[in-house]
Amino acid sequence: MPIAFDIFCTVVDNFGDIGVTWRLARQLHNEGFGPVRLWVDDLESFARICPGIDATQEQQQQQGILIQHWHNDADLEPARVVIEAFACELPAAYKARMQTMTPPPAWLNLEYLSAEAWVEGCHALPSPQGQLNKYFFFPGFTAKTGGLICEQNLLSERMAWQADQAGLAAYWAQFGLAPAAPDELRISLFAYESAAIASLVESWANGSHPVTLLVPVGRALPQVLSAISKESGAPGEHIVSGQLRVVILPMTDQAGYDRLLWSCDVNIVRGEDSFVRAQWAARPFLWHIYPQEEDYHLVKLEAFLTRYLADLPEPAADYIRQLMLALNEGGACDALWQQWPYHAKNWQEHARIWPQQVLTGGDLLTRLVKFLETKI
C-alpha cells in the first residue's frame, strides 16, 4: 500500500529547509495523519539536527518517519499526498508516475513563509501540470493563508516548562550555570553574520547588568568571539568579558533548541524555522532574516513587523522596529540596546499574547488537512 505522504526537501540553507520539513513530517506522524516518507538530498546536514541519522543509508526510520535518500536513481511509487518544499524540483521519473495514478495524488508546493499581503491572494491557487494540478500552499499570519507549524500540545508544554523552577535550574546546570540572578538577562543567539553583532556584544559587555549569551556553534559565533578578542572557542566553554558571559553550545536537535528558546529572556534567531519557534517561546526576539538580492528581505521583514507591532504602543513598536532593522542592516545597536529597560515590559507582554493571536485560524497542519479534504 502506498505511503500516505511524501515530503521532498532540498537542503539549501543548512537547517532552515530541513528544519521546517522535519517538523511537519513529525507532526503528521505524531498527530495520526501519517505514515510519512521524507525525501532528503543532504543527509549529513540533516544529521546535525537529528543525530540518529546515518548519512550512508538509502532508507532508515527515525521517530516513526521513513527517511529516503533523494538522488536521481530513487524511483519509487508516489504517495497519495505529495509535498514539494520550497519549489524543489521533483524527480522526473517520480512525476511521470504521478501522472498515471488513479486516483490522482494531491500535489502541493509548500512555499516560504511571508507576511506580505499578496500571499493571501496566491494561497491555495492551482498550477496545471499535465493531468494534475499542483497547489501553492503559503504559510502565513492571517486566516487567509496556510498558518504556521505548531504542534497540538506545544504551547501547553512551553508554559509548563517556563513555570517549572526546579526543572529550569536543572536545565541551566547542564551548561554549568546557576539560575539567573534577578537583574541578569539570558539571551540566545543563532544568527547569520552581521556587523551589528559586534555592537550588541560590546554593549552587553559594557552594560550595567549581567548578560549571559548562549551561542550554538554556527555562523555568528566567530563574530561574537572576535568582539571579545577571542580567536576561537569550543562547545562547553564559558568566556567572561565585563558584564557578559558567553557560553558556547553544541548543535542540538529541534526539541533541545525549543527548550533553549523557552528558557531565555530574549532570543536572536534567523531564517524561517527558528523564527517561528521563537514566536512560540513567548519571549522577545530579534529576527535575522535570510539576506536576498536587492535587499528584498527587508521588504519581507517590514511586512512582518507591520503585523507583529500593530497592537503595541508606538514608542515600543518604533523601538523594536529600529532594533530589528539595525540587526539586519548591520547598523550599530549599542545605543538602541540601552533603551531595552524602558520597553522590555511592553515587549514581554506582547510576546506572551502573540502566539494565541496568530493561531486564531488554526495551525498549518490543521489548515493543510482541511484543504486536503477537498482534494482527496
Unreliable stretches covering 5 or more consecutive residues: none
Q: Within the largest sheet, what's the order of strands?
A: 3-4-2-1-5-6-8-7
Biggest sheet descriptor: 8 strands, mixed
Number of strands: 14
H-E string: EHEHEEEHEHEEHHEHEHEEHEHEHHHHH
Instruction: Give average pLDDT, whole number.
Output: 94
Give the proportion of residues in helices: 25-40%
**Between the first and last Cα atoms, what is the distance in angstroms?**
16 Å
Structural class: alpha/beta
Radius of gyration: 21 Å
Q: Helical segment tally?
A: 15
Q: How large is the share of residues in beta strands?
A: 15-25%
Instruction: Report the principal-axis shape.
Output: globular
Descriptive keywords:
376 residues; eight-stranded mixed beta sheet; six-stranded mixed beta sheet; 15 helices; globular
Topology:
Blueprint: E1 5-9, H1 16-30, E2 36-40, H2 43-49, E3 59-62, E4 65-69, E5 81-85, H3 92-99, E6 106-110, H4 118-122, E7 126-129, E8 132-137, H5 154-163, H6 165-173, E9 185-189, H7 196-205, E10 211-216, H8 221-227, E11 238-241, E12 244-249, H9 254-263, E13 266-270, H10 273-280, E14 285-288, H11 296-308, H12 314-329, H13 334-337, H14 340-358, H15 364-372
Parallel strand pairs: 1-2, 1-5, 2-4, 5-6, 6-8, 9-10, 9-13, 10-12, 13-14
Antiparallel strand pairs: 3-4, 7-8, 11-12
Helix pairs in contact: 7-8, 12-14
